[in-house]
């Protein structure tokens, strides 16, 4: 009996510090957000219960819908841009099509270490009138007055941040692909080559089937990461100009910390979590099918 | 196999990888040399190398941006947060991996679910809670969320790693009369060094670059981290380009050194993190 108590007490001593801190900082606030999402609250006094009003208001607000569209574009760029590009790069390095694979690996992965705030400001400077991009464009187009104007168009304004996200994260996916490609036994591929299998056949029959699980994990990564993308856009455009580049996280931020609508801001943050859960469930369905097909 | 590959493929591979390398490193190289360039030169030609290499951009940024304070804060937040996350995660990981309690399984699945939770889902209540507890605008108020947000990934990595430690190793020590906590200190901690390293490196990177907590949970200059200080630079002083470049370099340089030293561990860490989920 005594040893059993001791075991229980030791277990508690090991697990409780992490768990309690986690509950206090993450689980309880999420629950509170969920509750506040049904209220109107300015940060003082008692929250007033308003039912689903916050959620209804959100889906009628054109600014929210535009930021939702921007978020979906970010997800699209991550899943359809970063992951395939990461794979292409990884595959070239894995098959040793070039010399100095370590060098390329290290250089392409490098941007991941730079703070999103620095990345944002740096790219703003690259695109600014004194930046390299207009300098190059002036020489290509022959127009000495070229300036970068994407941000002035409501539909195009999101493109520069999308490109920068691609710039930051492609290397991450490349590294994950390389680690997984290296787990495929070399002998399997060599045997296929001896049997006369062409490169596309190897890719389709050996490489791709063993990547399905990883691509699923990456998709989850990309979806939850995209919905979290705040820092980069916040520092690059602040959601502007004229809220063209706003994403849901920035929409939440401005409603909460600029207009002090705590209840409404909480409802938006719950939508962010719900959206990522739904999208992940959806992609799980798609990948289940793909796995069945390949097994 | 390589002789089967035709030259055009190799050429294409060099072209693609070369382009990506240029795009990845180019802006950073430009940042590096521009930070030594006097602002008038930057305005005259953005691409040219500095004619008068100067450190005055750094001196000015350091003084006007109060970067010394921010640097120190970043060091404190990052190191304390990282050490605490790594230690707590390995302790909890031992509990989850080697003690079969139902409560343990429930807590573990809570940590797994935490991977989906974004900072934005908690920041409003956290802000309110911290204000009421009186830890808003304190170092503790910044560090606690840093630790908590590092935990889900760290706990997953630690649990998976300790699960693979042979039970016999743990049991023989227990039979010899060593208490569980002694086993933790004498056996689990030492054998977990590799996973501790992975956790520390990943968490360190995240903490150093973290922005929103340090931004929202502090006010005034004294407690800002480097990313927050650098961000406030961009809007206010955006015509002194040289100084801006220097400020960006100050925030980036420690990470470049970190990358030079821990590159392989970092890559392995990210790859493992993806495999374990």
* Helix/strand/pairing category of chain A: mainly alpha
CATH architecture of the domain at 74-219 and 265-276 in chain B: Orthogonal Bundle
Question: Biggest sheet of chain B: strands, sense, closure?
Answer: none
Spatial shape of chain A: globular
The CATH superfamily of the domain at 74-219 and 265-276 in chain B is identified as MetI-like
For the largest beta-sheet of chain A, the strand count, sense and barrel status come to: 2 strands, antiparallel
Report the uncertain regions of chain A: none
Query: How are the strands ordered across the major sheet of chain A?
Result: 1-2
CATH structural fold name of the domain at 74-219 and 265-276 in chain B: MetI-like fold
Q: What string, H for helix and E for strand, traces the elements of chain B in order?
A: HHHHHHHHHHHHH
End-to-end CA span of chain B: 34 Å
Number of domains of chain A: 1
SSE arrangement of chain A, N to C: HEEHHHHHHHHHHH
Please estimate the helix content of chain A.
Answer: over 70%
Assembly category: heterodimer
Helices and strands in order, then pairings?
The complex is a heterodimer of chains A (295) and B (277).
Chain A: H1 2-36, E1 39-40, E2 48-49, H2 53-58, H3 62-94, H4 101-109, H5 116-127, H6 132-141, H7 159-181, H8 186-194, H9 199-228, H10 231-236, H11 248-258, H12 262-294
Antiparallel strand pairs in A: 1-2
Chain B: H1 7-34, H2 39-44, H3 56-64, H4 67-98, H5 102-114, H6 119-133, H7 139-163, H8 167-175, H9 180-191, H10 193-209, H11 212-216, H12 226-236, H13 241-276
Helix pairs in contact in B: 3-13, 4-7, 4-10, 4-12, 5-7, 7-10, 8-9, 10-13, 12-13
């Amino acid at each position: 009996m005594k040893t059993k108590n001791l075991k229980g007490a030791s277990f508690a001593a090991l697990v409780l510090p992490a768990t309690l801190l986690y509950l206090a900082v993450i689980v309880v606030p999420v629950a509170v957000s969920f509750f506040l999402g049904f209220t109107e609250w300015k940060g003082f006094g008692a929250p007033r219960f308003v039912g689903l009003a916050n959620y209804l208001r959100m889906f009628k607000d054109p600014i929210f819908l535009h930021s939702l569209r921007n978020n979906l574009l970010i997800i699209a760029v991550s899943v359809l841009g970063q992951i395939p590009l990461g794979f292409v790069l990884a595959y070239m390095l894995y098959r040793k099509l070039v010399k100095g694979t370590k060098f390329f690996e290290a250089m392409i992965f490098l941007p991941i270490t730079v703070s999103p705030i620095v990345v944002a400001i740096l790219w703003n400077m690259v695109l600014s009138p004194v930046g390299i991009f207009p300098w190059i464009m002036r020489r290509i187009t022959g127009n000495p007055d070229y300036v970068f104007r994407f941000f002035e168009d409501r539909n195009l304004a999101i493109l520069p941040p999308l490109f920068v996200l691609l710039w930051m994260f492609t290397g991450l996916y490349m590294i994950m692909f390389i680690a997984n490609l290296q787990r495929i036994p070399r002998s399997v591929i060599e045997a296929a080559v001896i049997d006369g299998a062409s490169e596309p056949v190897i890719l389709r029959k050996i490489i791709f089937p063993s990547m399905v699980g990883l691509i699923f994990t990456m998709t989850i990564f990309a979806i939850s990461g995209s919905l979290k993308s705040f820092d980069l856009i916040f520092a690059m455009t602040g959601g502007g100009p004229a809220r063209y580049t706003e994403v849901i996280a920035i929409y939440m931020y401005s409603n909460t910390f600029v207009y002090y609508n705590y209840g409404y801001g909480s409802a938006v943050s719950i939508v962010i979590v719900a959206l990522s859960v739904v999208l992940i469930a959806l992609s799980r369905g798609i990948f289940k099918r793909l796995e069945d097909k390949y097994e | 196999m390589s002789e089967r590959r035709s030259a055009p493929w190799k050429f294409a591979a060099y072209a693609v990888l070369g382009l990506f390398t240029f795009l990845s490193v180019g802006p950073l190289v430009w940042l590096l040399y521009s930070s030594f360039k006097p602002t008038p030169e930057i305005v005259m030609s953005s691409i040219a190398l500095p004619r008068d290499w100067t450190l005055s951009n750094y001196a000015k940024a350091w003084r006007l941006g109060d970067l010394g304070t921010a640097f120190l804060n970043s060091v404190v937040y990052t190191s304390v947060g990282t050490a605490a996350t790594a230690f707590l995660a390995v302790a909890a990981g031992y509990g989850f991996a080697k003690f079969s309690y139902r409560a343990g399984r429930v807590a573990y699945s809570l940590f797994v679910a935490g991977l989906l939770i974004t900072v934005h889902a908690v920041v409003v209540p956290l802000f309110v809670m911290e204000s009421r507890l009186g830890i808003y605008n304190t170092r503790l108020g910044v560090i606690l969320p840093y630790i908590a947000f590092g935990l889900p990934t760290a706990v997953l990595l630690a649990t998976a790693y300790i699960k693979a430690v042979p039970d016999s190793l743990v049991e023989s020590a227990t039979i010899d009369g060593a208490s569980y906590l002694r086993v933790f200190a004498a056996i689990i901690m030492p054998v977990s060094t590799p996973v501790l390293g992975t956790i520390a490196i990943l968490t360190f990177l995240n903490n150093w670059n973290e922005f929103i907590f340090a931004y929202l949970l502090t006010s005034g200059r004294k407690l800002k981290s480097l990313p927050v200080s650098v961000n406030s630079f961009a809007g206010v002083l955006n015509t002194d380009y040289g100084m801006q470049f220097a400020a960006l370099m100050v925030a980036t340089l420690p990470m470049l050194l970190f990358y030079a030293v821990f590159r392989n561990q970092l890559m392995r860490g990210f790859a493992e993190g993806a495999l374990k989920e």
